[in-house]
Specification:
heterodimer, A: about 290 residues, alpha/beta, 5-stranded mixed sheet, about 15% helix, B: about 130 residues, alpha+beta
Chain lengths: ~290, ~130
């Protein structure tokens, strides 16, 4: 995890442990294929860490809010001529994926234009269905957020990762009572080995943010229980939430998760630089 | 199989408003109507359940001002579904209680941001008669 923060980077002494970089996950498949989920500011450190090790990178964008693309212009592989970057993202009736991203990588917001990038970059509007990348099966589906937004499920063998970083499935709905077919993102998350899910707000904070496209703790946990996720990472921390605040929040989340019948050892808050190995070689839970 | 996001959002909206409304999928299956519609129809959706749109028409009308059944093909939802365009009609609906309600019906197709046709939604507005 190269970035677990939501909305805006929040560096500083109060966020050193959970991290201040915005959304970015690196997924390395068994065959070595590198899939990157979102290009928040965390992708800058990922680019430095890759150091040319991955000649072909698949970047799956959930949506184009700035906290999910801001690091793209500082992604070192984009400046290497022999790197191929395939960018997947949601379709919009308004403009192509490439044109929408180019609004950021162009003047006056950027000193570099997209056409100047030395890497080989292509843009593919993700079908909201299924396709293959390397040894993985990819599924994408539209989910409840502001603007065209996708969630992803990456399956390799019998291991699956569901990534829905920006999601408000409880908007106008009681998740505990809805039939599964009426729950946004249900199929993506269904029995995932690991669910990485939005949990930007506490229940107390949420009333002032209804409709902003993010989940409160209650909805995040209920969603995770409804989809029967085997392991859960609460993600997209609010920039106002300090390390100490998140420590306390983690305790609350653990108690609430247990009250819902979940195993507290299978729930944690996302932490920048955390590495998790899934599948046959998965270590014992925390 | 989960419902498309557009239908999920439409249902969430319908559940949150007091304007009677119904939701159908691309096959014309009535997927949901809200409590406001239930009050007008005299039957909650949870009791009625899903049904083909044609069956809905047979159960609740609608009728024209002379009391004649409006042909299925002329109903706003049918037009929205088949022709992919909004449609409006003044109709009388027969509730399960035997009451009749004169209502304005506006139906429109639901097309996703991805460009796919997802179904249609109809709103009812009672003129109080």
């Amino acid at each position: 995890m190269w970035g677990a923060r939501g909305s805006v980077p929040s560096p500083g002494p109060e966020t050193t442990r959970y991290g201040g970089n915005t959304s970015c996950l690196q997924v390395t498949l068994e065959d070595g294929t590198v899939i990157v989920l979102d290009a928040g500011t965390g992708i800058r450190n990922l680019g430095l860490a890759l150091a040319g090790a991955a000649p072909r990178i698949h970047l799956l964008l959930t949506h184009l809010h700035l906290d999910h693309i801001q690091g793209l212009m500082f992604f070192a592989p984009a400046f290497r001529p022999r790197t191929e970057i395939v960018v997947w993202g949601p379709r919009s009736p308004e403009a192509s994926l490439q044109d929408r991203i180019a609004r950021y990588i162009s003047a006056p917001l950027s000193p570099v234009e997209m056409r100047e990038l030395p890497c080989e970059v292509s843009f593919l509007e993700a079908p909201t269905t299924e396709w293959e990348i390397g040894s993985a099966h990819i599924e994408a589906a539209s989910v409840t957020h502001r603007g065209p937004t996708l969630g992803y499920r990456i399956t390799e063998g019998d291991t699956s990762l569901c990534y829905i970083p920006d999601h408000e499935p409880g908007l106008g709905a009681d998740l505990s009572e809805l039939a599964p077919e009426w729950i946004s993102g249900y199929e993506l998350g269904c029995r995932a080995s690991l669910l990485v899910h939005d949990c930007q707000y506490s229940d107390r904070e949420y009333p002032e943010h209804i409709g902003w496209g993010h989940s409160r703790l209650e909805d995040s946990l209920t969603f995770a229980r409804r989809v029967e996720a085997q392991r859960v990472l609460l993600f997209h921390h609010d920039p106002l939430h300090t390390d100490d605040w998140l420590d306390s929040f983690a305790g609350t989340a653990s108690e609430r998760w247990a009250a819902l019948g979940g195993d507290p050892a299978r729930l944690e808050l996302a932490v920048e630089r955390r590495e998790i190995r899934l599948g046959a070689a998965e270590p014992a839970p925390l | 199989m989960g419902q498309p996001l557009e239908l999920i959002l439409a249902r969430n909206l319908m559940s949150s408003i007091s304007t009677p409304s119904v939701l159908v999928d691309t096959d014309g299956v009535l997927l949901f109507y809200n409590d406001a519609a239930a009050a007008m129809l005299g039957q909650r959706f949870e009791e009625a359940g899903r049904m083909p749109w044609q069956e809905w028409g047979e159960r609740f009308g609608p009728f024209d001002e002379e009391g004649a059944a409006i042909p299925f093909d002329d109903l706003p939802l049918t037009i929205a579904l088949r022709e992919g365009r909004p449609a409006h009609h003044h109709v009388t609906i027969s509730a399960q209680t035997g009451d009749r309600h004169a209502v304005e019906v506006s139906a429109m197709p639901l097309v996703s941001a991805q460009g796919g046709f997802r179904g249609a939604i109809a709103f009812f507005w009672s003129d109080g008669t």
